[in-house]
């Protein structure tokens, strides 16, 4: 009866009978044990089957809480795939950059020698490093699409997954009790077959081989698993030649080819429960998981073979019409050599949190210190560890100063600012080793002023060497954290030219506290080549007489600063531009402003990472738009060889930044944050702050920083600027005493300075002085002029005032001619006041 239940008949049953007969005939001491196959008690739902590496199986609960940060989640598969493609593209581009630089010399730059066939959309990207990465991304997308199409069409055979030796696999499925009474299930374990080319080790078919007294029960444990493994029941090994060989089978429970876990379970009437079983291969070969075996009522063995459906075939009309499927390969694996297996956990450097703090949200702009605890639970050495994130939140302090402004911030690879190498000292991690890498995490919200949940995707990639071929392979690890970010400080800044001191500007900064507690402002900093920041004195009344800039909840503080232009470098220096300087202005009264070299400061690290990520994201989105537009128009024809060569020539442009090639300057460097060609046009502000920990006053203060990026000072040209490109200042006496009876009208001299704010473009304008009703001007009252970028013009005038009183000398009108020929008139609201008194003077 049990044999009739094995299969519905035909070749499947015949093959099973021949397999068991061959074992029993040629193996002394073999004994067949009663086992009921296909009994469906308990009922196993094959459609619920999931196979994973045990180290990648999420915990039983929905999520794990990371204190002071957030909750772990699975993440979106589409985001993971995009991050993986971007990681591959950046690493390939960096490798080509390095090889090209070493072969052609660092002066030419690797990105300038790219012979890759460029598409028209890629050729439009200006930055050569971004262009190379995007080209590699397009190539990777194309390869994956072709592979997916080949799998759908059935032209490519789907190969089993490659697994590591001594790395446990977990198989989970739902088991159901169809009866109205509870059933007790014992020794639930997986049934599998492992073939290494010479022999086969399997525990299918309940055949017991007795060659002596039973050996002691041996247990196996592995670093990558918390389970205890045992030799499978009825495990046996065939002679050399496989299952068809006519020889004696052996059973050695102390040296099995694979080990399994066992479970006992009691199913209530009509209930369902998901269970997880593990199997760990100890030898190399082809592993196939056949089904699950268990014992009912302490005596009866039951076997259920897994029945899965393969993917639908789409290679021809017949298969599409008949919904033909390929053979399933989910339960098949190719076991190769030992491989590393990494686990990563974020460990806060702060004390153990309370229950309230473990679920508390982080603040926008908060910078916290963490340790990346990386453990190699595999059986081989891992090398070249890199971390890819979806947002520029993580900075790895190197502990050493930059050699130059062109060096990368942190350990960044590539232009995105989100691909980090896990340190030079941690390039190799031996099996069983654990290391801790100090990192900084700056949380930011995409919606200012509102609490929002943000997703932090962390994709780890590491490599290992294959001993037989020497080839390098890679593995991936996914970690995603859902972070709740609350508003902390809203920082705004406005800038206007100074009308009293030429080449100076006034920066007004407003900071509002959204933390339910006190906020202490630390300092305001800028990184610039052509400007320095200086706090305007005597602003203590703004802080209510306090020497510390402490702001209560929902309060706002306003501070004003002078933005002073720095002189150009001396003629004897070897560079035609200034070094990038960090100007720091403490909010606390009594502390003086200071300036230091940018390569000695770490305050710009997150600003450099965020700026690089923003530039790369803009270029990538523009590229995707070009691809979508080309796909929608569908008018792209095959290109001639000369067109391809011209596109490649445009890709290998010099891309100079000042006098340096952009391929030499890393996208996350301070030099790219403050480029020479736009340093006179824009500045970025950095405001650092700290807040006492209200939940635990004994803990360290919460620190953070907020940025105001792209604060426009002087536009490069007048195309994108709607305001007046010209500023005017006036030098004149504030008071004058004159004897009107003896000398007649008073003459007040004034000098009007007209300055072109544009850095590169010239401006044509008409200068005119409107005639006031109460006095007159002597001098050039109306003329037309053209000034080059940054040029100044001084216009002397004299005001003739007939009677004593207070007079406004501001009566200047400028009519600027735009590039399109349009004339725009400007009047200036500031007053130039002079007090004229009647007295003994002349």
Topology:
Blueprint: H1 11-26, E1 30-32, E2 35-37, E3 43-53, E4 65-66, E5 70-73, H2 77-104, H3 120-123, H4 128-153, E6 161-163, E7 169-176, E8 183-195, E9 200-202, E10 207-209, E11 219-220, E12 229-230, E13 236-237, E14 258-260, E15 263-267, E16 272-281, E17 285-296, E18 300-305, H5 317-322, E19 332-335, E20 342-348, H6 355-358, E21 362-363, E22 366-376, E23 382-389, E24 394-395, E25 419-421, E26 428-429, E27 434-442, E28 452-465, E29 472-486, E30 489-497, E31 504-513, E32 519-528, E33 531-535, E34 550-551, E35 556-565, E36 581-586, E37 594-597, H7 605-633, H8 641-651, E38 656-657, E39 660-661, H9 670-673, E40 682-691, E41 702-712, E42 726-732, E43 735-738, H10 740-743, E44 746-756, E45 763-769, E46 776-779, E47 782-787, E48 792-801, E49 805-808, E50 812-817, E51 823-827, E52 833-838
Parallel strand pairs: 2-18, 6-19, 21-29, 43-52
Antiparallel strand pairs: 1-10, 3-7, 4-5, 5-29, 7-16, 8-9, 8-15, 8-17, 9-13, 11-12, 14-16, 17-18, 17-19, 20-22, 22-27, 22-41, 23-25, 23-26, 23-28, 24-27, 28-29, 30-31, 31-35, 32-34, 32-36, 32-40, 33-35, 36-37, 38-39, 40-41, 42-44, 44-48, 45-47, 45-50, 46-48, 49-52, 50-51
């Amino acid at each position: 009866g049990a044999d009739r239940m094995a299969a519905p008949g035909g070749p499947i049953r015949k093959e099973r009978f021949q397999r068991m007969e061959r074992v029993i005939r040629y193996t002394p001491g073999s004994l067949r044990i009663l086992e009921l196959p296909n009994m469906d008690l308990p009922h196993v739902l094959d459609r619920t089957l999931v196979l994973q590496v045990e180290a990648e199986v999420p915990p039983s609960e929905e999520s794990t809480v990371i204190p002071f940060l957030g909750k772990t989640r699975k993440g979106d598969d589409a985001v993971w795939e995009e991050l993986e493609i971007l990681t591959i593209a950046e690493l390939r581009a960096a490798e080509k950059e390095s090889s090209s630089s070493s072969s052609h010399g660092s002066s030419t730059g690797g990105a300038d020698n790219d012979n890759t066939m460029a598409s028209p959309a890629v050729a439009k990207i200006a930055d050569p490093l971004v262009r190379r990465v995007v080209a590699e991304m397009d190539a990777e997308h194309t390869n994956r699409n072709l592979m997916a199409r080949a799998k759908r069409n059935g032209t490519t055979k789907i190969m089993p997954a490659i697994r590591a030796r001594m790395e446990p696999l977990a198989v989970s499925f739902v088991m159901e009790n169809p009866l109205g009474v509870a059933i007790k299930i014992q020794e639930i374990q997986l049934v599998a077959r492992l073939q290494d080319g010479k022999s086969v080790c399997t525990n299918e078919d309940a055949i017991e081989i007795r060659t002596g007294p039973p050996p002691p029960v041996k247990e196996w444990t592995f670093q990558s698993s918390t389970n205890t493994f045992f030799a499978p029941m009825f495990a046996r090994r065939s002679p050399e030649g496989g299952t068809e060989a006519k020889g004696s089978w052996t059973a050695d429970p102390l040296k099995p080819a694979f080990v399994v876990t066992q479970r006992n379970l009691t199913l209530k009437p009509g209930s369902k429960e998901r269970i997880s079983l593990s199997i760990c291969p100890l030898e190399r070969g082809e592993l196939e998981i056949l089904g699950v075996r268990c014992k009912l009522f302490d005596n009866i063995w039951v076997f259920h073979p897994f029945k899965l459906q393969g993917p639908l075939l789409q290679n021809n009309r017949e298969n599409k019409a008949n919904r033909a499927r390929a053979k399933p390969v989910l339960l098949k694996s190719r076991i190769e050599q030992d491989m590393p297996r990494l686990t990563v956990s974020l460990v806060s450097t702060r004390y153990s949190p309370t229950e309230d703090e473990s679920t508390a949200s982080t603040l926008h702009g908060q910078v916290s210190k963490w340790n990346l605890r990386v453990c190699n639970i595999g059986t081989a050495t891992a090398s070249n560890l890199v971390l890819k994130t979806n947002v520029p939140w993580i900075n790895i302090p190197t502990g050493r100063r930059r050699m130059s402004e062109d060096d990368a911030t942190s350990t960044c690879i590539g232009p995105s600012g989100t691909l980090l190498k896990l340190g030079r000292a941690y390039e190799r991690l031996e099996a069983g080793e654990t290391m801790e890498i100090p990192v900084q995490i700056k949380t930011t919200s995409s919606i200012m002023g509102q609490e929002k949940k943000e997703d932090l995707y962390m994709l780890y990639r590491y490599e290992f060497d294959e001993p037989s071929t020497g080839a390098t392979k890679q593995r991936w690890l996914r970690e995603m954290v859902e972070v709740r970010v609350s508003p902390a400080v809203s920082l705004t800044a406005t800038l206007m030219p100074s009308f009293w001191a030429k080449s100076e500007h006034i920066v007004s900064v407003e900071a509002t506290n959204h933390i339910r507690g006190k906020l202490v402002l630390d300092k305001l900093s800028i990184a610039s080549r052509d400007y320095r920041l200086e706090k305007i004195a005597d602003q203590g009344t703004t802080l209510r007489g306090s020497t510390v800039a402490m702001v209560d909840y929902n309060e706002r503080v306003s501070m004003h600063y002078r933005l002073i232009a720095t002189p150009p470098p001396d003629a004897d220096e070897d560079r035609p531009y200034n070094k990038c300087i960090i100007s720091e202005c403490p909010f606390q009264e009594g502390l003086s402003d200071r300036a230091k070299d940018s390569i000695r400061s770490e305050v710009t690290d997150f600003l450099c990472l965020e700026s690089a990520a923003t530039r790369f994201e803009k270029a990538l989105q523009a590229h995707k738009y070009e691809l979508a537009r080309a796909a929608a128009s569908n008018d792209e024809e095959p290109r001639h060889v000369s067109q391809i060569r011209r596109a490649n020539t445009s890709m290998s442009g010099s891309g100079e930044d000042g006098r340096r090639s952009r391929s030499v300057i890393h996208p996350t460097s301070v030099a790219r944050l403050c480029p020479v060609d736009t340093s006179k046009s824009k500045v970025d502000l950095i405001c650092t702050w700290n807040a006492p920990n209200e939940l635990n006053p004994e803990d360290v203060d919460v620190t953070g920083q907020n940025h105001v990026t792209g604060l426009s000072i002087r536009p490069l040209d007048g195309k994108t600027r709607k305001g007046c490109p010209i500023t005017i200042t006036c030098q004149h006496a504030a008071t004058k005493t004159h004897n009107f009876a003896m000398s007649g009208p008073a003459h007040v001299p004034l000098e009007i300075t007209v300055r072109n704010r544009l850095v590169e473009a010239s401006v044509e304008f008409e200068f005119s002085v409107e005639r006031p009703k109460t006095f007159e001007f002597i001098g050039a009252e109306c003329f037309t002029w053209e000034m080059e970028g940054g040029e100044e013009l001084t216009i002397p005038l004299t005001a003739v005032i007939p009677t004593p009183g207070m007079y406004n000398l501001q009566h200047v009108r400028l009519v600027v001619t735009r590039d399109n020929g349009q004339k725009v008139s400007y009047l200036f609201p500031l007053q130039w006041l002079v007090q004229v008194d009647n007295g003994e003077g002349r």
